[in-house]
Amino acid sequence: MSEVASSPLRDFVERHPRLLVLTGAGCSTGSGIPDYRDREGQWKRAEPLRYQAFVGDALARQRYWARSLIGWPRLKAAQPNGAHRALAELERRGGLSLLLTQNVDGLHQAAGSQRVLDLHGRIDAVRCLACTHRQSRQQLQAELLALNPDWAALDAATAPDGDADLDGLDFSSFRVPPCPDCGALLKPYVVFFGENLPVARVEAALRALAAADALLVLGSSLMVYSGYRYAQAAAEQGKPIAAVNLGLTRADPLLSLKLEADCADALSWLLPGG
Q1: Which segments of 103-220 are extended strands (E)?
Q2: Which residue of the set 16, 108, 120, 133 is catalytic?
Q3: I want to staple 4 with a disulfide (CB 3.0 to 4.6 A). Which of 52, 154, 214, 265 is the partner?
Q4: How far, in Å, CA of 252 to CA of 248, rounded?
């Protein structure tokens, strides 16, 4: 067992066989996907695009899709790391009632987890804001490249949602395809900042929390209320909360156990040789 995979976390997991696990960007950093916040819970980069800007500003949409064109291949190529595999193993052992993730990368499912609720949606899908049309992000990538071949050679660092740090460029000529069915706006199947979470998704997570006997937070600062609400609700229900995170979390005063550790290291005891 690694030093950071200390007995307190293992004991917490084994004492609470009906865990609701909430994961954030820190679970995917080992897969080469950067996180959003530093150890103090502050933004490492500019705040992500808000929903109101995406739907109301054509230039903001052009900028978003241009940056996504560059960032998507790196996100698509990411593979599950030890944290994802450990949680899939925990589910296989029957120790996880639901895996609630704030991440949009789909790596929990790629690792074999099945009881997953994608709180903020999935970046590998695109939907029309006016009709029922949906398509894969990879299909849209091909369309974006066909319309904007001169952008293909660009490269930049990316964020957890595949947004690339392209700055100082003229985005006004970037071409964005409309919905092929009705001609309206296409949007990633993710919840943007400033956009409401689907009520059914929130209620499903709260039902899972009510049936769980503890909450385990992995790799999330919980600075965004969409995640923090579950720690708040667990505390109100008198349920113990443990967290593994490299830095501050908004729920620190509510925690029964806190480990400042890498998520994969902290869960390594679940994997062969751990």
Answers
A1: 116-118, 121-128, 134-136, 186-190, 214-218
A2: 120
A3: 265
A4: 7
Q: How far is CA 111 from CA 17, 108, 259, in A?
A: 21, 5, 23
Query: Is the pTM higher than 0.85?
Result: yes
Distance of CA 120 to the CA centre of its chain: 7
**Residues forming a β-bridge with 23:** 101, 218
In tens, the pLDDT along 165-190 reads 667 788 999 999 999 999 999 999 99
- Long-range pairs of 142-145 with CB within 8 A, sequence gap ≥ 24: 143/177, 144/65, 144/68, 144/69, 144/175, 144/176, 144/177, 145/69
- CA-CA distance, 160 to 144, in Å (whole number)? 20
231 vs 225: CA distance, rounded Å: 10
Termini Cα distance of the chain: 5
153 Cβ partners below 8 Å, 6+ apart?
A: none
